[in-house]
Each structure stands twice: as C-alpha cells, then as structure tokens.
Amino acid sequence: MSQAAGADAVPTYILTLSCTDKMGIVAAVSHFLVEHGCDIRDSAQFGDRGNGRFFMRTSFVSKQGVPLETLRADFAPIATSFGMEAEINDEVTKTRMLIMVSRFGHCLNDLLYRHRIGALPVEIPLVISNHRDFEDLVASHHIPFVHLPVNKDNKAKQEAEIMRLIAAHHIELVVLARYMQVLSPLMCRTLPGKVINIHHSFLPSFKGARPYHQAYDRGVKLIGATAHYVTEDLDEGPIIEQEVQRVHHGMSNGDFVAVGRDVENLALSRAVRWHAEHRVLLNEKRTVVFT
User: Fold this and answer.
1) What span, in angstroms and rounded, lies between the C-alpha atoms of 263 and 107?
2) Beta bridge partner(s), residue 148
3) Which residues have a Cβ under 8 Å from the Cβ of 46 and sit 6 or more positions away?
4) Domains assigned to the chain
5) Given phi > 0 = left and psi -120 to 50 = alpha, else beta, which region is 15?
6) Residue 208: helix, strand or coil by DSSP?
7) Using one digit for the tens of pLDDT, what is the confidence trace for 140-164?
8) Which residue, of 171, 209, 226, 244, has the fewest CB within 10 Å?
9) CA pair distance 37, 233, nearest whole angstrom
C-alpha cells in the first residue's frame, strides 16, 4: 500500500458504518472519537425509513497519531453492540484496482489517464484482457498487461487464473471497463460489492453489440450510462452512478456512439472514485452514496 502523505503528516481516517437505526449511534461514534483525541473533518449520515437501516461516513483527524489498528480494535466493541458493519480506513491508502477490458477501450483509456494525473485514489497493479488490442496502451502507462483469452471450453480455468491474480496482487476492486464477458455466479459471490461494471442505460430496450445504432434507428432523445456493482443478476446490481446526455434528430450514428462513450467514461470514473473514497455503502439492492 502506498502512502500519499509524508511520515510526519497527521493521519486522517474514514469511518463507514451501517446498522439497524436506533438511538445513540452518532453519540457513540462522537464519544469514541473524543476519547481518542480525534477531530471530525466532515460527517454524513442517512436513515432509511423504508427498511430501518442507518448509514454513516465520517472523516476525522487523529491529532495524537493513534495507529489505524488501535482504532479498529477499540471501535470493535461499539460495532458489536450496535450490530454494525463498520470499517475504518486510512484516507491516504490507495485502493488496489484491477481493470478488465475487451475490445472497447474508451473506459480503459479514461481510467488510465485519470490514474496518471492523480484524479483517482487507486493503484493499478495490472490490466487483464481477453484480447491483445490495448496491450501497447497499457504498456505506455508502465502497467503490466495480462492476456487471458476465453472461450466456452476454458472459461472456468480462465476465471480461476483471474482469481489467483486477484489474490496475488491483493486486489480490492475489480473494474469491468467494457469487459464483454459475463462473470460466473461463483465469481460474483466471491467478490460481493467489489466489482464495478458499466453499461449503457438502454437496457433492456436495446441489447446486443450495437445498442447506440439501435437507439439512433428508434430516434431516442436521451443517452445514458449506468455504473453498478456486479451480482449474479446480469446488469441488475446496485447502482452507484448514472450519467445522461440529450441527443437530437440532427445527430448521426457516429455522434450517438461518441456521446455514449463520453457518458460511460463519466459514470464509471465517478463510481470508481467514490468507491475508492469509501463513499458507497450497500443498502440491500441499492446503494447510499455520500458525495
């Protein structure tokens, strides 16, 4: 894990939690932070009236330099008492992210560029593809490229190799940047809330390889893209972000495709950044996103 700040910097941490909504949660968190000499930088919370769940994200500074592991250990009894799913993370520790891609490279190129300029708080140890189309692009960013071709006969073996690489490189997030293969139910269950996919928002209206051309033929007025977590239900996982842009009758097929690329890039990059900043919490089939 790389650290963006110097050794003498005051450590900043992010606490995220979800649990059944009840009295005293915010008070318990605040008391814990005061006891440990921490100052809150910002905090957001949400109580879902529909299912009675409570969600919270708090960024705080440890002026006394309390180690992360100490904070985690000391907070554990509070989490247990409230039945919380809770995490405390160091703000400067970057998320280790694997990108997977096939033959559409716009999302890959966008993520690599944002990573290069520091716009995404991630490390990219490698890129995996079932084709070699973008091997040179990835190499230009000095990132290892792994070619893992797949067909109906070797899919299980190929996924097993992907899982081996995920473990070997300590991958925390997998991004399907137009990776045109359906992940197996086993892989989806193994990585819950850790795989983000992008797709156009015409589903289920326009399926297949040329959705924007179908949209052009039907004269649609809005083009959108959806970034979501991957589940066993194809393209129906919890939505993280969506982007939309208006189109009109004077635009061509190519214009529709170009707009589609742009909105996919925007939706996916935001979803990746928010996940890496610990802003996304799962809420059953939905998400709570503290932006």
Assistant:
1) 10
2) none
3) 54, 55, 56, 288, 290
4) 12-90 (3.30.70.260), 95-289 (3.40.50.170)
5) beta
6) coil
7) 999 999 999 999 899 999 999 999 9
8) 209
9) 45
In the structure encoding, which two tokens stand for residue 139, read together?
Answer: 């190499």
Q: Where do we find the tokens 């473990």?
A: 167
Distance CA 261, CA 249 (A): 19
The residues near 63 (Cβ < 8 Å, ≥ 6 apart) are: 10, 37, 38, 39
pTM reported for the whole predicted model: 0.93
Q: Which of 106, 162, 158, 161 has its CA nearest to residue 137?
A: 106
| Closest CA relative to residue 128, chosen from 144, 146, 142, 115 | 146
Which residues are part of the catalytic machinery?
235
Token representation of residue 141: 């960013």
Helix (H) or strand (E) holding 174: strand 173-176
Residue 146: CB partners within 8 Å, gap ≥ 6? 126, 127, 128, 129, 165
* Cis upstream peptide for 238 (omega within 30°): no
